[in-house]
Amino acid sequence: MGALKNSTAQRRVSPRLQNLPDDQRPYYGPSPKRTSDSAQNDAVAKKKPKVEKPSAPAQKSAPNAKSSKEKEKVEAQNGESETKTGPDVEDGGADFFAPDGRLTDENGVSFTARLKETLRLFNLHYLHFIQEEEKRCSKLANGTACCDDLKEPSRRPENDSACDDKRQSKRPDLKAISKMLSNNEILYPERKIGHVPGIEVGHQFFSRAEMVAVGFHAHWLNGIDYIGESRGKEKYKRYTLPLAVSIVMSGQYEDDVDNKEEVIYTGQGGHDLLGDKKQIKHQVLLRGNLALKNNMEQSIPVRVIRGHKCVNSYSKKVYTYDGLYKVVDYWADKGAAGFDVFKYCLKRDGGQPKLLSKQVHFIRGRGSKVQPEIPGLVCKDICNGQETICIPATNVIDVPPVAPEGLTYTKSIKVAKDVNIPSSAPGCSCKGNCTNPLTCSCAKLNGSDFPYVARDGGRLIEPKAVVFECGPNCGCGPDCVNRTSQRGLNYRLEVYRTADKGWAVRSWDFIPSGAPVCEYTGVLRRNDDLDSVSENDYIFEIDCWHTMNGIGGREKRLCDVSIPNGDAEKGFSKLSESEPEFCIDAGSYGNVARYINHSCEPNLFVQCVLSSHHDVRLARVVLFAADNIPPLQELTYDYGYELDSVVGPDGNIKKLLCYCGVDGCRKRLY
Q1: CATH for 22-41+386-637?
Q2: In whole angstroms, what separates CA 122 from the centre of its chain?
Q3: Kind of pairing between the strands at 393-394 and 493-497
Q4: How many Å from the N-terminal Cα to the C-terminal Cα in the chain?
Q5: Fewer Cβ atoms within 10 A, N terminus or C terminus of the chain?
Q6: What is the pLDDT of residues 486-531, one digit of tens each?
Q7: Residues 90-131: pLDDT tens digits?
Q8: CATH 2.30.280.10 spans which residues of the chain?
């Protein structure tokens, strides 16, 4: 976990604090108590500058392409006597593209936290529009084509400029961008030259729309993003505009050459967007092409983003920020298809982190990559075949390497003898799959709509107080979208040893936001029985009802759900207390979730789910992806402790430092 310095340190604990006031007891739900700082963070995030509607920048006239390797002298032809070199230092422009080393903004909010917040907002809009599209398709008598477009977005190029208005209106990612623009929710609405706060070299985006949402590359189609004369007239008045801020290399141009540290980039325009991406007409030295030339002459760096195929990404591409490059040369040339193109030689600035992404090649001529070997393998499958996917364990830290021990793996909840599980709740009468929220009784429990979309195998649109899934008495089948969390593991997980946090978990696959990762399993117990369990550090209290009602300082979640009458009401009189009644004990029995660590800026969230019965006191605990998670990134969630809330057997307050390592780390776990 994010707070371990050795393997014997305590992990997530839930000691019985009988002598501690209720308002100081720890809780372990998905939404920890908000501090004044977190409230301030939200306030800051909502203060977005007004975003003006984009207008076409005025461009200077430029000549057509010349012969190969003959550099254009546009200034001479335009009668310009000298080249502008940028503002004086006193204008503050000489270092406007250099990072200042700050990790937080002027309000103390982590730049990475603001980035995550914005991307989560984009994903929320995106999934809502996915749901709208799924509803539209289900209502059409002849909706095969539109539904196929929804399921196979890769068949239509992401940067398809020839889409008509009707087709574009069906793209949820573009709708999400429009929503954020209209709501002034873009993180950096003004184009920035150089590094962007919170986005480090190596950061990955999973669609061009994500880059637009944060203001990193402000156009979802064009490969060159630039500051035009109309927008940069005041701020960059001593520069020759337009100026390029970023380029995307994604293998769409057959004339590109990528040697990682030095690239030959083909200018924009003239290629077949609907076909094989080859050049079909001449390029001209305008807009982005002219901007790159101006960058070269004024020594202004450009952000380089490389795009690669990623079969698991919802856009089928992944875009990696590879740092700042300088344009050192440009020329007009005859392209491979015989048309005039502009080519730019860019060299990577020194002193930047090592490149992590691979070279980009013309995508029509390359094959697939080879599966890597597993170093430090100490156990081929910790679940011994119980899951449909093996979970290996690796250890390259200890000498000699050791495997995880002390756990009997169980993929489902075990129930203690004194805990009575309610009988199965009445189900819906849907047949096959639940598709109509107006007639499905389970959808009505979730606020008259389904909590999931079918995209990517099922994704939760947003965190809720509780999710009601279809159960054993429902008429639908196992592939119903409202059974998403019941399908077991969908991603290849690995338990691995860390140098300072004990065991941890990561995925070999890309995990889209809202996707269920795993359930937290163990022995379902009463909290009152925990006193007989000694030295147990793996207790997860089920605080679903408390989160729904904001009891014990918890932040209330979206609660447009209907709690049905029945067994759950029998114990509700006790639920006004801050202490949950039941917990999941993973001390001896548990699953892979037992090894997932804490983080102050996690990429997972905890969701209470009801499927077989409707008693919120005994809800299932499922971990969902809060972000689009790239392969090999550690999986984490917030354990939700309050500071000074854990007391040891001697009655003294216990303290445990946090080593999660994020910019916004609270430094202490409890």
Answers
A1: 2.170.270.10
A2: 10
A3: parallel
A4: 13
A5: C
A6: 999 999 999 999 998 999 999 999 999 999 999 999 999 998 887 6
A7: 333 434 555 566 788 888 888 999 999 999 999 999 999 999
A8: 74-365
